[in-house]
Design brief:
Layout lengths: L2 E14 L5 E15 L2 H18 L16 E7 L5 E2 L9
Antiparallel strand pairs: 1-2, 1-3, 2-4
Length: about 100
C-alpha cells in the first residue's frame, strides 16, 4: 500500500468556548513530497524531514503564540492519498 508524505502549513483553529475555550491543530496541504511503499520507510523520512524543518523554522513564532502569523510547516504521512486539509471535513468536537 502506498504511503504519501506531504507538507502542510500548520495553524490552530478555535474549537469553542467550553471549559474556558479550546483550540485544535489544523493544516493546509502545500505539496506532496514523496510516495513510498513502506509505512516504516515513510515514517523514517517524515521524522528526518521534520527535524530539518524544526531547525529551519526556529526563528518563527510557535503555532501556540497569540501573534503567530503562519509560515510553520510539517511533514505528515497518509495512506493512499493526502487530504487537502486536516482535520478532515469534520471539525473536532469537545467531549
Amino acid at each position: 500500500m502506498p504511503h504519501v508524505l506531504a507538507i502542510y502549513e500548520v495553524d490552530r483553529a478555535w474549537g469553542g468556548p467550553e471549559e474556558g475555550g479550546w483550540w485544535f491543530d489544523c493544516g493546509t496541504l502545500v505539496r506532496i513530497v514523496r510516495v513510498v511503499g513502506s509505512a516504516d520507510r515513510a515514517t523514517d523520512i517524515a521524522l528526518r524531514a521534520n527535524r530539518l524543518l524544526a531547525r529551519l523554522q526556529r526563528t518563527k513564532r510557535p503555532v501556540e503564540s497569540l501573534i503567530y502569523e503562519g509560515g510553520r510547516h510539517s511533514v505528515l504521512v497518509f495512506e493512499n492519498i493526502a487530504p487537502p486539509a486536516y482535520p478532515a471535513a469534520v471539525r473536532p468536537r469537545y467531549e
